[in-house]
Amino acid sequence: MTPHGLREIGETKLQQVGSGTVSPEGKTFLARLRRVRRCAFAPLAGRGFIVLLAPLVGLLLLLAISLIYMFILSLRTFDKGLIQQEGLTLANYQRFMFDPFYLRILGTTFVIAALVVLATIILGYPVAYYISRAERWKTLLIALTMTPLLISAVIRVYSWVYLLGNAGFINRTLQDLGWIRDPLPLMYNRIGVAIGLIHVFMPFMILSLLAALQNIDRNLEEAARGLGAGPLGAFATVTLPLSVPGIIAGSLLVFTLTIASYITPAVLGSSADKLIALLEYEVFYETGNWPFGSAIAFILVVVSLIVTVGYFRLMERQMGGKRI
Amino acid sequence: MPTPAVELRSIVKRFGSHVAVDHFNLTVEKGELLSLLGPSGCGKTTTLRIIAGFVEPDEGEVLVMGENISSRPPHQRDMGMVYQSYALFPHMTVFDNVAYGLRMRKMARDKIEERVASVLELVHLRQMAERHPNQLSGGQQQRVALARAIAIEPKVLLLDEPLSNLDAKLRREMQVELRDLQRRLGITTIYVTHDQEEALTLSDRIVVMNSGRVMQIGEPHAIYRHPANSFVSNFIGITNILRGRIAEVSPGGNRAVFVSEGGLRCTVVLDCAQEGLSEGVSAAIRPEQVQFRRGGDIDTVENLVHGTISHVVYLGARTGYYVVLSSGERIIVDVQNVSEATARQAGDPVLCCLPPESLRLVADSAD
User: Fold this and answer.
1) A32 & A98 share domain
2) How many Å apart are CA B180 and CA A255, to the nearest integer?
3) Mind listing the pLDDT tens digit for each residue in A157-168?
4) pLDDT exceeds 70 at position B112
5) What is d(CA B268, CA B231) in angstroms, rounded to the nearest whole number?
6) How buried is residue A317: exposed, middle or buried, by Cβ count under 10 Å (0-12/13-18/19+)?
7) Closest Cα in chain A, distance from residue B133 (Å)
8) Given phi > 0 = left and psi -120 to 50 = alpha, else beta, which region is A10?
9) One domain, residues A243 and A145
10) Computed from CA positions of residues B103, B107, B113, B114, in that sequence, does the dihedral angle turn out positive or negative?
11) B10 touches chain A (CB under 8 A)
12) Same domain, yes or no: A281 and A139
């Protein structure tokens, strides 16, 4: 007898008990039934979490403890070049939040992140759509979209230097063709940073979109067309709305990755228009002011958390009535 | 003769080297429910999708009410399609789903509300208008899909195995409802299914297909009683097939003697449809037509043969007996379970009668 079959019998019997119609023989049967159920599931009963214990502990040690340490560090002062071991203060946070210089850096970071998210959506959606509809080359195409991740970050970023520089490949070719006279400023500014970041984070967006698009029933777009929608109309009214969870997931990923990015902005950006990760580097390594650096790090963590929570709230609202 | 609602002229569709639809010709009368019936891979769904416009045929034309629509894209063909997986838009309410086609046709808002309400009423789902598809049961979802297709008052209704995902009881209920609705609205309907019982229940006419070709077209009764070849006879219902040859034909041409491979001699009554059969034929008889007789009938009844029961299958209303005949061939005999007294067991000897009128000669069709 399967556990399921047992449960059905058990439920019928329980109903009978409820109505007071079970005989003494029936009551022994129920007792035996309960014992059998407990034995069948005993190995796991209440002990399922043991399997999780090992990875949980590892995770806790690595993440939580280091985060807690950093948090405490952010509350200390940096006095005469030394990290004070006593006294808690919010001075570091205040220093960041009330100085327009630092706030501008945070703002720049968000602006570029938003730009990168937007660009990856616009450029990545057609690619993801095409791959989702591809029959034979799907695996190959997915592998191709992952190529930015297959190269070391440093090599990748210096390849961009080669392409984008004033004497770089793009400018030289355009000059040779006679299309431009002076080189285009594609590097050491926001444009260069954006290009580099879009390139490296595109796979994340494409794969998120692809996952969402593949989950959409193939027949839906067809049904829409049969009902009178042209190909564009069918896409706009059916496929696009249903792919929004993918867009949101991809945006979350790209956003949190962008605001923490270091190498690309470091090499391709200007030192006057910094992103927050560069500021961090300077504070930690050049000034040695770990408490302040930790505070900046934590502000970043909080921002990421707010964005992530916002994402989940959005998804909940989406799933509420219109579950995909 | 009135213009047929749908006409397919010599449609051919190849996928690589595989011919999915092979010079397919068909006319569908206005208001009739026609089924495309056949095993998986016979080309019935491909044919349906060619009619709908989602697949372009390599050769041939599709006509609707006499007009050649072969080059028209699906959204201009004015057909309603119902899918096996329902294909309801999950992000829209039932109302929005049904109204979709009407909105695409830029109908006025109040007219849309009227039409959607009346169509939902037809499928008994008026109160579910504001629900989402994931809040409905399978049967309800299928009815919404149907409502969505008929809301646009299409010229042709196309159904692709719409009831396959429902359990048996619900299927039977939906079959009746569907038939009722179709008759009331008078919409020309083409129905694809691999379930021959379903085709027999619903259709005005059935097209039996195999390997992209038409095996037989006809009314359900005609197809069941007079299958044109062994494929049809095998596919529709269960049939006992005895291979063999014709030994003699009576001078009047209305009786023949059939000899099976195992040496069984039977008299067969021929009807006009069976003339012109060559030597290599099979004799077919339905399990319910074989009779169990008693020893005393030996001299009075034709086509008696001894056998032994090898297997008994109890089916509630009927019992199927697997019998090995003295000629070595195996047949199935279906007996209605009228009383317990007539029940037999494996190993019992039996005397089978294959009435001459019930035996049909069929040509061995190409597989």
Assistant:
1) no
2) 56
3) 999 999 998 888
4) yes
5) 20
6) exposed
7) 9
8) alpha
9) yes
10) negative
11) no
12) yes
Residue type, B118: S
Q: What residues of A are in contact with residue B104 (Cβ under 8 Å)?
A: 227-229, 233
Beta strands at B304-314 and B318-325: parallel, antiparallel or unpaired? antiparallel
- Tell me which of A45, A60, A76 is where a domain ends: A45
Interface test with A, best of B94, B100, B107, B165 (most A CBs within 10 A): B100
Answer yes or no: do B104 and A233 touch at CB < 8 A.
Answer: yes
Domain that holds residue A11: 1-45
Residue A316 sits in the same domain as residue A227: yes
User: Do the chains contact at B100 and A322, CB–CB below 8 Å?
Assistant: no
Shortest Cα distance, chain A CAs vs residue B172, angstroms: 25
CATH number at residue A213: 1.10.3720.10
Give yes or no for residue A10 having a pLDDT over 50. Answer: no
Most distant pair of Cα atoms in chain A: their distance? 101
Let me know if residue A78 belongs to a domain.
no
Residues A147 and A34 in one domain: no
Map residue B226 onto helix, strand or coil.
coil
In a domain, A53, yes or no: no
Phi, psi of A91 (to 5 degrees): -55, -40
Give the least confident one: A79-93, B138-152, B306-320. A79-93
Answer whether residue A39 shows pLDDT above 80: no
Structure tokens at A21: 């119609």
Chain B residues within 8 A of A219 when measuring between CB atoms: 83, 85, 87
Whole-number average pLDDT of chain B: 88
The partner residue sitting opposite B90, judged by closest CB among A222, A233, A323, is: A323
The answer on A250 and A173 residing in a single domain is yes
Burial of A153 (0-12, 13-18, 19+ CB in 10 A): middle
Q: Is residue A262 part of a domain?
A: yes
Determine the pLDDT at residue A127.
94
Please give the Cα distance from A114 to A107 (Å, whole number): 11
Chain A nearest CA to B126, separation (Å): 19
Amino acid identity, position A245: P
Total domains, chain A = 2
State the Cα–Cα distance between residues A35 and A43, nearest whole angstrom: 14
Does A108 lie in the same domain as A211?
Answer: yes
Residue A249 lies in a domain: yes
pLDDT value of position A260: 87
Cβ contacts of A217 on chain B, cutoff 8 Å:
85, 87
**pLDDT, chain A, mean:** 83
Chain A interface includes B148 (CB < 8 A): yes
Choose the closest CB to A226 out of B79, B90, B134. Answer: B79
* Out of B52, B89, B92, closest to residue A226 by CB: B52
Domains in chain B with CATH codes = 6-230 (3.40.50.300), 238-363 (2.40.50.100)
Both structure tokens of B258: 């059939």
Q: How far is B135 from chain A (nearest CA, A)?
A: 9
User: How confident is the model at residue A8, as a pLDDT?
Assistant: 52
pLDDT per residue over A21-32, tens digit each?
445 555 556 666
